[in-house]
Structures are given as structure tokens and as C-alpha cells.
Amino acid sequence: MATSNQKLYLLDYGAGNVRSLLNAVEKLGHTIEYIRSASDFDKADKIIFPGVGAFGYAMKALREKGFVEPLRAFVESGKPIMGICVGMQVMLEGSDESPDEPGLAILEGRVRLFDNTTKAVPHMGWNGAQVVHGVSGAAAVGGAVPCIDEDARYYFVHSYGLAYTGEASQPLTVHTATRYGDETIVSSVWRCNVFGTQFHPEKSGAAGLALLRSFIETDLIRPPSPPQETGGAGVLLPRDIRDALSVRVIACLDVRANDQGDLVVTKGDQYDVRVSASEGGHVRNLGKPVDLATRYYAEGADEIAFLNITSFRNMPFRDTPMLEVLRQASRCIFVPLTIGGGVRDIVDPDGLHKWTAVDVAGEYFRSGADKVSIGSDAVYAAERYWSRMAEGLDPLDGSTAIEQIAERYGRQAVVISVDPRRVYVASPESTAHHTVKTTIPGPNGELYCWYQCTVKGGREGRDTDVRQLVTACAALGAGEILLNCMDRDGTNSGYDLELIADVKNAVSIPVIASSGAGAPDHFSEVVDKTGVEAVLAAGIFHRREVPISAVKAHLNEHGTPVRLESDTRALS
Prior knowledge:
By secondary structure, the chain is of the alpha/beta class. The protein is 26% helix and 22% strand. The strands form six sheets. Strands 2-1-3-4-13-12-11-8 form an eight-stranded mixed β-sheet. An eight-stranded parallel beta barrel has the order 14-16-17-20-21-26-27-28, surrounded by nine helices. Strands 22, 23, 24 and 25 form a four-stranded antiparallel β-sheet that branches. The longest helix is centred in the C-terminal third of the chain and has 15 residues, at 376-390. It is globular.
């Protein structure tokens, strides 16, 4: 049994958001220190090793810091260690993501890319985890076992996974397995003193915090046991693992400074965030960002997105108010946080400090964000992609923010926020752009339209259509599409199903449906008719017109899998 004076350390090789893990540990009443040098390994009684991004980047960083051999020695000492996501993967023999980069080979197995011809990749969202073996608390050393609730859902975000076969000695290492579409992967490992999860417990709400507590407050030591035959007593096979992936319900907060300079959550009607002149013409104020976000977490939001729609060019980037919003929110919110706005190259007002887009993203991640959303700059990147393609040049030259952030932090960290509007045409031959036949005729009875991409908050239209944008961005390394619609924004008339279905058919990365939701039926309709992985709303949640709980209850009754209140209970 663990004691209160054990020293808990965090192994950070320069990954993305480790602040959430620090906050989760503090939430549980514990403290954790950083491993800053090889000598710190000897001071640790337990280590948590979180990781995001590329397998090769993680291994290279460990080598450059001189951490590889001390890490192996720590494992051999028998002290407990917990790897999270890439932190678990690097303990294996290798990954197809970085085929020339060997893993630590502490555990057997190789990580492979999901098949994106049968499902969206990355695997992004809340899924189940089933224990595959028969080791009980009575058999474990000290009676302690990882606190994984097989009825709960945990947050996954990865493109590569370790296939679960149930064969040979695999059940001696695998603790839980998870089904994603037509593939079954290892979602946690547990062998002797090594425990690891493919999912992120620090982003998995109350269930994830309970799992972290079981690692911190007990010594998870699994005893060696004799090899079990495939399908032997107590061993589950891949066919026994159920698909529990849920549709994500996301709350979005448009954040900007009001006329008094205070940061508020606002909501526009077709992107106009000010009330009418007769009402004073001021910015709509629907609440404070952290207060609203905390409320949505308590109400069961699966993710929360902050979209910064104010420019702070008159202050140094490090003083940007959104950084403090993220720091405060991540202290009490343990589901994924996305931040959008200003993810581009920046020069501070003094002209001395220059921030690359990767620097900006890194600062957001260190402040508590899990994903960054790119808007206007994604349109410019897509235009450059197609221009280079037309000139016979390599369109993937690593120069865009999308490519650079994805390479450093993984494609799952890059969201493309799309702001399109309809342009009606008489026929597909009337334009060079990809068109959609519509059931909503234009002002002159037109039966076709194309969706024009906009920049600068919808103020400027570009000669680029949505399909050009999303396919280019997916090729550049984006991991998800946040699909807005200027025509539906603030109307409460339902999502633009034609737009969403067209984009869903064009890419193999997850798509979030946004703009237009006004009733619970709108959420089930867009899931049924387009197959999107997530649904997002803003105004109806802010004004309590439709609570998040009502959306989830409706989806559940409709037969759509969702993470329910039982999974989001407060941690006692």
C-alpha cells in the first residue's frame, strides 16, 4: 500500500498539455514534481509519464535529455510507473508512425495505424475499456487493482494503437481492451510495476480521476502468472469487446472583450455579436468564460471549446487574457479543452519578440489547452496547397502552421475551424467550384450552391470552396474539422445537413457539426443523416434554452451512444 510520504514525479519530455495532469493530481489532494534531470529518477517513488504527439519525437526527446537508461533502470527497480497515451506506447517495441525509431521494449508489441477506410482517424472521443484477464484484487500484490469502471467511458485521442488479439502471452501484459469500429486495441497495459493507458485519465472526468487516484494512493503491482491459452478461462477475445464509442456533445464559448475591456462570452446572429442599435448596440454578454465552462463541465459536456474572437495585438502574447482563462479553466475542468483564435505567427508590439505558430500553440498547451483551432490561416494554407499542386511542386513542404503543429504535437491537436456561406448558382457548370444540389432553392430558384470559405471572422470571402479547404487541411495534417455555417449561425433552425454530409464524405478525419441547433431533434437528425462524430452548440446552452442534459437524454432515447450523467458524477 502506498504511503502519504511517497514522492510522485512527472516525466515531461516536452509534450503538449501536462498542466491538466498536474491539476488533476492537485485536485486529488497530492503534489507532483518534475523530472528535470537523470538524477531525479532516483528520488522518485512513483512516476507518471504522459505523452502526446508523435512516437518518434517522444523517443528522440527522451534520448536527448538522457532519460532512456534512467527510465529503464526505474522500471527494473520495481517502483510503480504509469504511462499515458504516447507515454504508454514508447514502452513497447516500436511504432509504424516512426518505423526507424525503436521503442523502449519494456513491453512486447508494436503500434500500428488505424484503417481510415472504414472509420474516421484519429480515434477521438469517449469509449469504453473492458478488463480482458481474470486477475482480481485478491491475486494482486497488496490487493490493489487499477480503478477502471467498465460501465464508464474514457477519453481517447490517437491515430495509432496496439492491436488486441488475446493470443499467446498478450493477456499477461494487457489489462483492458477497446473496440473502435472494426478494430480492437489495447486500452491499458499492466505488467508487474508497469501500468499504462492509451486513453487520457486526466481528461476523462470523474472516472479518469478515480483511476489516477488508484495509481497514486495504492501500489499497482500485478504478479507474474503462467501463460494463458487463447480464449482460456477469464480471458476475453477481440469479439468479446463491445463498441462503446459515444457521440461527443461539445459546448462552445465565443470569447471577446466588451466595450469596457472585460472578457465575456458572447454569441452572434450570423456572426454579428452586437445587439441592435435600439437596444444600445453593445456586445452581448452571456457570462464569464471560466464560470460558464465550469457549469458545462458539471452538466456533462464532453468537450469545451473557447473561440477567441478578439484581437489582442496591442499587448505581448504572454499577457493575452485567453492564456489565463485556460489556466483557470483547466484547474477545475477535466475534459478536453480547445482554444481557437490567433494561432499564427505573431510579433509582440515592441517588435522584439516573435512567436511562431508552433510557439503560440505550445503556450496554449502549457496553459491547459488540448487542441488548437485554426481558422483564417487554414484557408491561406489550403490556397497555398492547391497553388503549389498546380505548379507541380510538393504541397507538403512543412511550411504551414498545420504541418508544424501536427509534427510536434500530433495531428489530433489541430482542429480546422471552417466558416463557409452558400453561393447559389444555376448549375454545376456555372462555377469551377464543387457544388451541392440543394433542397433549399436560392433567391432566384437556383437548385445548386457551392460553399465559399471566409476569413477574418466571416468578413472576407475567398475563391476557395469548403471541399478544397478540408481535403487540403486533412492532407497537411489536421486531425479534425469544426464545421460552422454562416447561413445557419444563430438561427436555431437546425444544422446545414447538405454542407455537413458533403464534408463528411470528403474527409476521413472526425467532423464536428456546428451552427443552427435549436432543439434536441436537431442533434439526433445531424448524427443520423451525416454520421458526424460530434455535435456542437453555443447560444442554446448559454441561455439554457436546451440544456446539455436534455440533448444527451434525447440522443440516448434515440439510440445514439452518449456519455451519460452516471459517467460524469462528481468525484467524492
